[in-house]
Amino acid sequence: MSWLSSLKSVFSPAQEVKEEEIQQVLQNYVLPNSNNALKDRITQINVQGQVLQITINTLPSEADDLQKIHDDLADALEKCGITELNMHVIQQKTGHSAGGCGHHHAEGESCSSQPKEETAPQKSHLPPVVDASATVAPTAKKEEIDPNNPPIQKAAPQQRDVPKHPRIQNVILVSSGKGGVGKSTTTVNLALALQQLGLKVGVLDADIYGPSIPTMLGNAGRTPMIEAEHFVPLDAYGMAVLSIGHLTGDHNTPVAWRGPKATGALMQLFNQTLWPDLDVLVIDMPPGTGDIQLTLAQRIPVTGAVIVTTPQNVALMDATKGIELFNRVQIPVMGVIENMSTHICSNCGHEEQIFGTGGGDQLSAQYNIPLLGRLPLNVQIRENADAGKPSVIAGDDAAESYLAIAEKIAAKLTHAEKDQNRIF
What we know:
single chain; alpha/beta; eight-stranded mixed β-sheet; four-stranded mixed β-sheet; 13 helices; 16 strands; disordered N terminus; disordered C terminus
């Protein structure tokens, strides 16, 4: 399998899922109390891993059959490797039972069926079905579903329920509320500094839409090998590294994916990569608090998060949102790094706080988390990162600051490993 075909299979079912049998189940199923085939009612279907999502059109007279349809399909699909079935139902206005759904229009009002209680133990992990008819105009397209009426799904997993990776001891997220605060530069330098402290370190670039780790680590344009349908991470200064940027081929290819595809790609990079035994995997997060952040919180065992911010108020407001998100999803915040805290003129030596002062201290006091360190606004940091030789490798003026921060993080990791009550 080439790296390109592997990339295209990001959103294919898991290996234990039997695609042909799933297709037969959906093609052969006949709706209860009618001769209508389910296949004529399907408008959308998606399989991610062992989760199947399906959207079907139904008639008002079939409302009482929705739970039976879901249960029948769940039982049949479970034998095909599907562990979770999310069925989204759009109820049609017309009452005659035509086989197809192309001549019906979505009803303007939404109504929900009350799912019956599941008594069989084998069904306890399958979510109930709900009638979530779209609240759209009669002339709207079928895919324009009311975002305020999502299908009921299985309860989101918590950090405490996520199993630990067999070869990765700790996962550290380097995050920021907004872009442009130096998060990726901080990620690569912290990873290299942790490595200099004697830890085995890897780097995963989770910034799917703006991957910059390949450039900063000097291996842009390289693609990973494929071994047993798994990526072999690239080497950068002795660290195992992988980014979506290593798969797209060049700097000009945009990753124009919607949220589910982006999160699917991230999970493949994490799970379908032959990571060596690592003390720490440092993940460079995308800015904000969106799909990827939630996916990481629910499906990847995280030891802690490091927040990168600048002193200015706009960055602090967004960093606050990031901290609040991690608190809600039970990911400990290990501390704050204040980047671009001060600038010293290379000509006259005058020091100036271009982005303000005290931002990191404010966050530290507000959330009772440590201020791990301050980094200057220094042209050497930018030049070395652009050249693929980060500060810790180049040994510039900022290298000692990164090493000092890494020592604090390493101490927290040691403490976390001794704490039996830590959340993974």
